Amino acid sequence: MKRIFLIAVLVAPLALADPTPQDVQKLMQRDFHARGQAGMDRVVQDGVQRVCTESGDQPPVGLAKSLEADQMKSIVYPSGSLMGDWKRGESIAQNGRGLQWTDKPGAAAGGSCYNCHQLSPQEASFGTLGPSLRQFGKLRGNGQEMQRYVYGKIYNAKAYNLCSQMPRLGLSGTLTEEQIKDLVALLLDPSSPVNR
Amino acid sequence: MKKFLGFFCVVAGAAFCNSLPAQDAKKEIQRYREMVAEGSPAELFEVEGEALWKKPQGPNKVSLEKCDLGLGAGVVKGAYARLPRYFKDADRVMDLETRLLHCMGTLQGRKREEAAARVFGSADRPSEMESLSAYIAAQSRGMKMAPGLSHPKEKEAYAMGRAVYFHRAGAWDFSCASCHGDEGKRIRMQDLPVLYKPEHARPVVSTWPAYRVSTSQFITLQWRMNNCYQQMRMPEPDFGSDTTVALILFLTATGKGEPYRGPGTKR
């Protein structure tokens, strides 16, 4: 026990020297500048980003559950049907623009879905950072509950998995309510190429 | 015809190539990479860079030939392989581009605003910084990458670079590791190296800066950091800032030991 304590004392100063997320943020606040629509407010971490950075994306279960519950409250569901038009959804999924300093402010953004996911079989150029969504609706059904899940997951992925690498596309203001509904249709509509 | 179609798919994107299965496409990309690497136009930038290195410029009307890149004033042979490193005269760690900008100020008497006004060029008009980077980097071919890691400020910058790599922020909550974090992943068809692992960092740091075929541009590591932060939906990092230098040191240190074989060719 005594030996462990001694090692802890010897190692502690080294461990303390590692930059904290606060240190990194302070440096970035000095070293970055606003450009186009990308303002300096984006350098300031929110609670989710801070906890995920601190824990190496492995937050303690209890903390994760409570923060996920907070994120869940951020999801704004539209009234009426959540299923839009899968054809529009396909072009939103293809589009990788939006929120960059080079993008025109106010112009419709895309969801960048194909950057990370497989969706329609016609598109061979898909990324693999996220799971394949091929036949998503065919495998999981497309009832009211599933529609709510898909809408919520796109709106705020952190409500379901706190340190997910997927952006919070609704909460961040990237996609509109209509666009998210179109993506719900792309995933769940039986006539969508995703399900054929 | 199939060969041609494959090539076309890589160049034009896969939008028109629905019939080409992903596995074939991957092979075609590999073949295309090998093909473009053979006759790289990077050499043209090296020649232009050498001329710029020797050209008297700025209020002092002197060239950069007396610039100390870390191995003594005017020594270019092997200098790139030892960067980034700590410079006593500036009391900070600098990568190649940051050091060049420093010398443009101290030797040539140029104001930072003027010297850094156009650090990233275009296909039509490359930047001075890009050509200079090509020339200096090429003088380290065959030498093992060995950035500075012994000075306390180098150690500090390395630790900061590592922390920056895993730091999540921005409108889309990304860190570098969001894309460069797990093995075997890709964005669209682009393979993503896991840059905190030596076996992934080695082939990367030994081939930058590089000529990029898809945009006909010569691209530098400062450009790479800048463009990643753009795609991460962050604001823009200052050119040559401590954040970018720390990241470049972290990446180079992770890939250290690899003989330099650039400037390379990228898709």
Characterization of this structure:
The complex is a heterodimer of chains A (196) and B (267). By secondary structure, chain A is an all-alpha fold. In chain A, 46% of the residues lie in helices and 1% in strands. In chain A, helix 5 crosses helix 9 and helix 8 (144-155) packs across helix 9. With 267 residues, chain B is mainly alpha-helical. Chain B folds into two domains: 2-38, no CATH class; 42-263, Cytochrome c-like domain (Cytochrome Bc1 Complex, Chain D, domain 2, Orthogonal Bundle). Chain B has helices spanning 2-12, 22-38, 42-53, 96-106, 112-115, 128-138, 152-165, 176-179, 198-205, 221-231, 242-254; strands spanning 85-87, 92-94, 186-187, 190-191, 210-212, 217-219, 236-237, 264-266. The longest helix of chain B is centred in the N-terminal third of the chain and has 17 residues, at 22-38. Classes of the chains: A mainly alpha (196), B mainly alpha (267). The interface between A and B is large, with 50 and 48 residues.
Tell me the layout of helices and strands.
The complex is a heterodimer of chains A (196) and B (267).
Chain A: H1 2-17, H2 21-31, E1 32-33, H3 47-54, H4 61-73, H5 86-94, H6 113-116, H7 136-140, H8 144-155, H9 177-188
Helix pairs in contact in A: 5-9, 8-9
Chain B: H1 2-12, H2 22-38, H3 42-53, E1 85-87, E2 92-94, H4 96-106, H5 112-115, H6 128-138, H7 152-165, H8 176-179, E3 186-187, E4 190-191, H9 198-205, E5 210-212, E6 217-219, H10 221-231, E7 236-237, H11 242-254, E8 264-266
Parallel strand pairs in B: 5-8
Antiparallel strand pairs in B: 1-2, 3-4, 5-6
Q: Which structural class do you get from the secondary structure elements of chain B?
A: mainly alpha
Termini Cα gap of chain B: 22 Å
Largest interface: A-B, 50 and 48 residues
**Largest sheet geometry of chain B:** 3 strands, mixed
What is the CATH third-level topology name of the largest domain in chain B? Cytochrome Bc1 Complex, Chain D, domain 2
The DSSP helix count of chain A reads: 9
- The CATH architecture assignment of the largest domain in chain A turns out to be Orthogonal Bundle
Distance between the termini of chain A: 63 Å
The CATH superfamily of the largest domain in chain B is: Cytochrome c-like domain
Question: What fraction of residues of chain B sit in β-strands?
Answer: 5-15%
What is the residue-mean pLDDT of chain A, rounded to a whole number?
Answer: 93
Q: Please state how the strands of the largest beta sheet of chain B are arranged side by side.
A: 6-5-8
Percentage of residues assigned to helices of chain A: 40-55%
Low-pLDDT parts of chain B are 1-19
How many domain regions of chain A? 2
CATH topology of the largest domain in chain A: Cytochrome Bc1 Complex, Chain D, domain 2
Number of strands of chain B: 8
Silhouette of chain A: globular
Q: Mean pLDDT of chain B, nearest integer?
A: 91
